[in-house]
Write a structure and sequence with these properties.
By secondary structure, the chain is of the alpha+beta class. 23% of the residues lie in helices and 27% in strands. It has three domains: 100 residues, no CATH class; 189 residues, 3-Layer(aba) Sandwich (Rossmann fold); 229 residues, no CATH class.
């Protein structure tokens, strides 16, 4: 009797298990159809996918080093590769030009950076590809040391699965003996993708990939497709500690086989890991983030000014210096009224969209462009020449900058408006509670940059509480008070509106219909060396059509010298070469 009971219970549990597996498998089949990329690449062989669109790319250099030449290899991700700048303005190319201008003529700087790489992939490029180039100096950094890229065989743990599967790659894991390289299963690209997405996962992926296997991820995908489930079977409990150990081993191996190594990073943790090895041939230092205009490009990579900053830091380290003195431009707003006095015979105001080009000039150079953060940055900077495709002013009559007094206008958001603006036009804030208007007050008035210009400023009180850590597709504003919604109106028209986030005082403001949020960032096509800029002057916003260009001051700038700490290499580069 008891045997029959246990047999029935076992049969019932087996039945339930098979039902769950059958349902999960049905989810899995649909999941595969949804997430498998149309075209994908494997990074098993780094040489196959090197990005050769820069002057400093490996394909411009013979693998056999010429006699008497010193070679410098730069390794990293998109910051090293030079995403968002043209073929001449990545930091390795700028470093090459800087070295030549200072008399170091027998030096070659090679860019081994690839967009999206973690340090494990950068290490693989060094070990299996760049070693053929006989490098004297290796530079690593500043941003490829990212755990989410290195704890998975897919491109990035933070990516949606469809995007992540387009970049499968081998990875290194920690072992008792040190570290071990785990290759992808399968021989061809399609085999590797099929092996990685199997319903019953291979042991290497179940154990060593922090991205959850397909049989676990499939049901969640249909509930929250943007959420990434972590693998509960992962071999280490602390991925951050795991990566620190692996990075240390990789730094040590690179330093063992290379005469001189420079590790520079925006993450002080990485600098400490390199310093803890106590190798005399490793120079390591932290890098200060110089965000904003004119350093930052549209997609948060460095623009030409930022890459020049990196190149100067590395130049100082290569030549044995312990600091890097560089000029920095500091921008401030102009006091109202902004409009230039004494300008008679100005043309009538035209739609902003009627102008062929709109840009910001500093010291006579067109350094700044407007961008819409809701548009993928890759559409702005396309190809080696970094062509700008999106027309952010397509339907715009005018634009107005919003900010608080004293801030740099290049740290402020702008709104492209579907209606004209006028000098003195009111900017009004409205607060609501459960749909009822609780308060309406004038926040500021618009000052035109120049008579006839469809561009103006409004020092809106709301922007004094703008939180700069916003993702820029919206404006997060910290406002206290009894309300649940806020609107910003220009000339009686709602241009921004948002609701309170939960019980906090933060209101997330989004552009209303007919307006668009814009920011000014560096143009990736225009070289910029702050050292060559004048001591002070004005930045101007310029409108250009087929007939002429009109400019009006938008900000003031002053140049000052700053000293950035670096670490000089133990065997500095000289104009006569470097001993190995």
């Amino acid at each position: 009797m008891r045997t029959k009971f246990w047999l029935k219970l076992f049969t019932y549990l087996l039945y339930l298990t098979l039902c769950i597996i059958a349902v999960d498998y049905a989810f899995y089949r649909v999941y595969l159809y949804q997430v498998l990329p149309a075209g994908w690449r494997s990074w098993e062989n780094p040489a196959e996918v090197m990005q050769n669109d820069k002057d400093s790319a490996p394909n411009h250099f013979a693998k056999t080093k010429p006699a008497g030449v010193v070679r410098i290899g730069c390794f990293g991700d998109s910051f090293t590769h030079g995403d968002e700048v043209n073929e001449h303005l990545d930091y390795p190319s700028i470093l090459q030009g800087l070295l030549v201008s200072k008399g170091f003529r027998k030096v070659e700087v090679i860019n081994f950076g690839r967009s999206g790489d973690g340090f494990q992939r950068a290490f693989g490029i060094w070990k299996f590809f760049a070693a053929q180039y006989d490098l004297d100096y290796i530079i690593m950094g500043p941003r490829c040391f990212q755990t989410e890229r290195d704890v998975t065989f897919s491109a990035n743990l933070g990516y949606p699965v469809k995007k992540a599967l387009a970049g499968l790659h081998p990875r290194y894991v920690r072992t008792n003996q040190g570290m071990e390289r785990i290759a992808l299963a399968g021989r061809g690209q399609s085999d590797r993708l099929a092996a990685y997405t199997r319903f019953i996962p291979l042991l290497r992926y179940l154990r060593y990939d922090l991205r959850a296997p397909a049989f676990l991820a499939a049901p969640l995908y249909f509930i929250a497709p943007e959420r990434n489930l972590k693998n509960p079977f992962y071999y280490r409990r602390d991925p951050e500690a795991e990566m620190s150990e692996i990075y240390s081993l990789q730094f040590d191996e690179i330093a063992f086989h290379t005469p001189q190594v420079i590790v520079f990073s925006m993450d002080s943790r990485i600098v400490r890991l390199a310093a803890a090895l106590h190798r005399r041939n490793i120079a390591c230092f932290s890098v200060e983030d110089l965000w904003g205009f004119p350093f930052q490009a549209i997609g948060h990579h460095m623009g030409p000014g930022g890459n020049h900053y990196f190149a100067r830091l590395i130049f100082s380290s290569l030549t044995g210096a312990n600091d890097s003195r560089q000029a920095v431009l500091e921008f401030t707003s102009l006091s109202p009224p902004f409009a230039v006095k004494g300008q008679d015979h100005e043309p009538a105001m035209r739609r902003l969209s009627s102008y062929r080009d709109v840009h910001v000039e500093v010291a006579g150079r067109p350094l700044g462009r407007f961008f819409n953060p809701t548009v993928d940055w890759k559409q702005y900077c396309v190809g080696p020449s970094c062509r700008f495709k999106p027309d952010v002013f397509k339907n715009a009559e005018s634009i107005v900058g919003l900010g608080a007094a004293g801030e740099s206008p290049f740290d402020r958001p702008f709104l492209a408006l579907g209606f004209p603006i006028y000098e003195g036009m009111q900017v009004v804030e409205r607060a609501y509670l459960r749909g009822r208007l609780m308060q309406a007050r004038e926040s500021g008035r618009i000052n035109l940059l120049r008579a006839g210009f469809p561009v103006g400023w409004a020092e809106a009180g709301l922007m004094e509480k703008w939180m700069h850590n916003t993702n820029e597709t919206s404006l997060d504003v910290d406002i206290a008070g009894a309300f649940d919604a806020v609107e910003l109106c220009v000339g009686g028209k709602v241009v921004l509106g948002g609701k309170r986030l939960g019980k906090s005082g933060i209101v997330r403001m989004l552009p209303s219909s007919g307006s668009a949020l814009l920011f000014i960032k560096a143009d990736g096509r225009v070289p910029f060396n702050p050292d060559a800029a004048p001591l002070s002057g004005n930045a101007s916003l310029c409108l250009q059509d087929a007939a002429r260009k009109m400019c009006a001051p938008i900000a003031a700038f002053k140049k000052r010298e700053r000293t950035f700490p670096v670490a000089g290499v133990s065997k500095p580069l000289t104009v006569f070469g470097s001993s190995r």
